[in-house]
């Protein structure tokens, strides 16, 4: 009996999925419209109620791998992107000064705090972020994106000719999902994709609405 119990314990450990606290936006509502860009956070995050050193500390957050402190914090609620294997933690920025950024640390309640920049290059506007990460990894379409956004246009204008329409495969398909980013033009992006039609398609697509909602996001992995 003891051998059987040991065997079952080992078997259960083997079949359990490996814990991974990966966080990536999934829906259009995942990214608030008023977010200006992102900030790459260090392992220790101290947030103040105002942008100066003598201000009141509203919270302190630390992270490492699959662990976050305080333990009542949730990776999905704190970070815009969290990929522990890459040591990459990105916070949503809602305001900025020369030395400080205001970031969301509780997306569900809309709570923000000010963080002093330890490196000015860790703050990226959306256009800079997409130009760096989108060009490197490609883009993916967020869920609940309006069907009309899948139209590829001949120019970065709503009334321009529709040259094709994206027909993206389901997520469990072996076909590629990545949309190649070529050029950014305001709220539009010139992209190329080989979708389920197995035909190469190129055209302009809206990556952001006029009021700030994102439809596409860099496929960081």
Quick overview:
By secondary structure, the chain is mainly beta. Helices cover 14% and strands 37% of the residues.
Structure description:
With 221 residues, the chain is mostly beta strands. It has two domains: 28-118, no CATH class; 128-218, no CATH class. The protein is 14% helix and 37% strand. The strands form five sheets. Strands 1, 5, 6, 7, 8 and 9 form a six-stranded antiparallel sheet that branches. A three-stranded antiparallel sheet has the order 2-3-4, with no helix packed on it. A three-stranded antiparallel sheet has the order 13-14-15.
Please tag this protein with its features:
2 domains, elongated, 221 residues, mainly beta, 3-stranded antiparallel β-sheet, 3 helices
Largest sheet: 6 strands, antiparallel
H/I helix tally = 3
Helix share bin: 10-25%
Task: Tell the overall outline.
Answer: elongated
Amino-to-carboxy terminus distance: 45 Å
Q: From the alpha carbons, calculate the radius of gyration and give it in angstroms.
A: 21 Å
**Order of H and E elements:** HEEEEHEEEEEHEEEEEEE
Domains counted in the coordinates: how many? Answer: 2
């Amino acid at each position: 009996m003891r051998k059987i119990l040991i065997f079952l314990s080992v078997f259960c450990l083997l079949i359990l999925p490996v814990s991974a606290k990966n966080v990536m936006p999934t829906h259009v509502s995942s990214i608030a419209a008023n977010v200006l860009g992102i900030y790459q956070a260090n392992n220790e995050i101290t947030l103040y109620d105002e942008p100066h050193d003598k201000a009141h500390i509203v919270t302190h957050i630390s992270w490492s791998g699959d662990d976050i402190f305080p333990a009542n914090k949730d990776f999905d609620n704190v970070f815009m992107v969290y990929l522990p294997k890459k040591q990459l933690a990105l916070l949503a920025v809602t305001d900025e000064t020369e030395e400080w950024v205001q970031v969301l640390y509780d997306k569900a309640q809309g709570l923000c705090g000010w963080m002093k920049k330890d490196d000015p290059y860790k703050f990226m506007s959306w256009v800079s972020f997409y130009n760096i990460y989108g060009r490197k990894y490609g883009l993916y379409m967020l869920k609940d994106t309006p069907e009309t956004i899948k139209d590829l246009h001949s120019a970065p204008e709503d009334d321009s000719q529709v040259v094709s329409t994206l027909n993206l495969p389901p997520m469990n398909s072996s076909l590629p999902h990545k949309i190649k980013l070529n050029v950014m033009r305001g709220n539009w992006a010139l992209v190329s994709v080989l979708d389920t039609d197995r035909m190469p398609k190129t055209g302009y697509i809206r990556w952001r609405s006029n009021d700030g909602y994102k439809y596409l996001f860099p496929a960081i992995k």
